[in-house]
Specification:
The chain is of the alpha+beta class. It is 23% helix and 35% strand. The chain contains six helices and nine strands; from the N terminus they run H-H-H-H-H-H-E-E-E-E-E-E-E-E-E. Helix 2 packs across helix 3.
Length: 206
Amino acid sequence: MFAERLKMARKAKKYSQAEVSRLLGVTQQAVGKWETGRSTPDPQTVARLAEILDTTADALLGLHNAAATISQDVMARYEQCLVPVVGTVRAGYGALAFEEDYGKEYASVKDPQNYFYLVVKGDSMEPRISDGDLALVRRQSTLDNGDLGVIVFGVDGEGTLKKYIQRGNSVVLHPFNPAYDEVVIKGEDLDHLYIAGKVVETKAKW
C-alpha cells in the first residue's frame, strides 16, 4: 500500500511529516492524508517525494517489487508502541504534571517511555495543526531555535504548543495563526518557563 511505503520511507530518513511537507511545499495535512490512504499525490509529487526520501518512485508505488529497496529493518526498528495520551501539561512544584488521561495511542518510536501525545486545544496553530489533533511529543527540557514544542509558562500555567524562538535575551512563543499575538517572555519571567518536550509529529483528529 502506497500510504504504508511512504511512511516507512519517511521514518527511514527520520523526517517528520512537517519536514517532508516543508521540503515539498505542501501542507502537513496533505502528507498526513497520503500516509493514511485518504488521498494519493500526483505522479510528479511522487517523483519529488522519492527524491527527498532517497528512494525511487517505483519503490513508493510498489512496482516491480521495488519496495525491497526501502530498508527492510525499518519496520523492526520502528515497531508500533503504545504511548500515553494526555489533555493537559502543567507545571507545579518544580515538576511537570500530566493530566486528563485519554488512554493510549500507537506511535512508531524506539523508546516509548520518553514520549507522550498531547491533545491540541484551540486554533492558535491553524492552519497546520487543528483543535483536537494529536501531537506526539518527545520529553526533553530544552528546545532549539525554531523547534515546535510544548511549553508551560507561569507558576501554574498550562502547556501550550507553540514555535519556540530565541530573540536576544527573551523567548518568543510563536503561534501559526496570524489572529493570535506572539508571547514574549523575558527577565525574571523566564524562571517560570518550563519546556515539556519537542513536537516530532502531529496527526489529525482521531
